[in-house]
Amino acid sequence: MTCKDNRREGRLYQYSPWKNMQRLKLINANGSSICIKDQNIEWIGAAGSEPSEFKEGCLSVDCKGKIVIPGLIDCHTHLAFAGWRADEFCMKTQGASYQEIAARGGGIMSTVRKTREASLPELAARAEGFLKEMCALGVTTVEVKSGYGLTLKDELKILRAYRELQGKTALELIPTFLGAHTIPPEYERQREKYVALVIEEMIPAVAEEKLAVFCDVFVEEMAFTVSEAEKILLAAQKHGLRSKVHADQLKRSGGTELAAKLNAVSADHLEYASGVDFKKLADSGCVAVLLPFASLYLKKQYADGRKMKDCGVTVAVATDFNPGSAPSYHLPAALLLACLGSGLTPSEALSAATSGAAKAVAAEGRLGEIRVGAQADLAIIEAESIDQWIYHLTANRCMTTIKKGKIIFSKEDN
Ligand SMILES: [Zn+2]
Prior knowledge:
four-stranded mixed beta sheet, globular, alpha/beta
């Protein structure tokens, strides 16, 4: 396919020849054809028997020998931050723990310091570069958290950077307020004052500007207690922000149970959650989001995805992209780890990054599925099967990424 992009006009990912194309046809994927009209999937059936309006005058992409999957959804990222932490990675390779690194002034606070110093345009430009590479992997939707500002001004700066990016990138961004990521050092001896700042100033300001869809809290010994998290999440719910919880990552501390109790959209991490917790998630309909890169980089146990599935929990997989515990946005690699570490099959891993992830961002039905009426977010993968794609990890097997019926990445153009 030959597309010219008009990057120089500042509209990254807009391919001018197809800009006004109303119809797109993907043919020969397992003998099938997918017809797209405007933003949605209009028809699915045997190749060659498409409705007449798709016979000619529409862009046709031959997918022979490839698979077509729903556009991938990375439903848990900390996308906007300044600096990296490769020095800490080096310490970790020599045995230092997350807690030891934090105690030496490193960890999350080193990212907070750099992010506070960065300007909104700097944060947005950097995140835009990450999104471009995610798009090339077949990702079409990304949940994006704040949480490296930890002041009213800096949390708003991060969320406003996402809003600015939403007008520039073809990917869909779903913003989450994570002011309760950790207690900043200036509030170390008066943590109740920081919780009050989050509840009384940050949440109302975020809601007023409609800067986030969800509110997330990191429930962990070194972050927030269950009762602090409950107060914050209930205050956010009153302002229309639905709940998410970073739960039971480093030890079992009650975060998963709280997520189920508050009807949170998702409970994320769950490395130390147990069967009792999974039962509660299944009953409440809360999605379990597996973040296997964090287990890999922290050398911790993986969440038991197999047991979650067997308990009837909806499971999602995401990258947790952040500069400390998961410095990669390679979602297909995270799917491989979800198979190896959490016991999912390749097909289950794919559905965890599509339909499961759609539910984790409250977009089920619209995103994450290939069916008539769903939004036409798709990726064409050069592999003979889902098993082959996930098992044979390469730099990138995505040939084409489609968002709302438009081609937003084509490998042949790169
Ligand atoms: Zn996270």
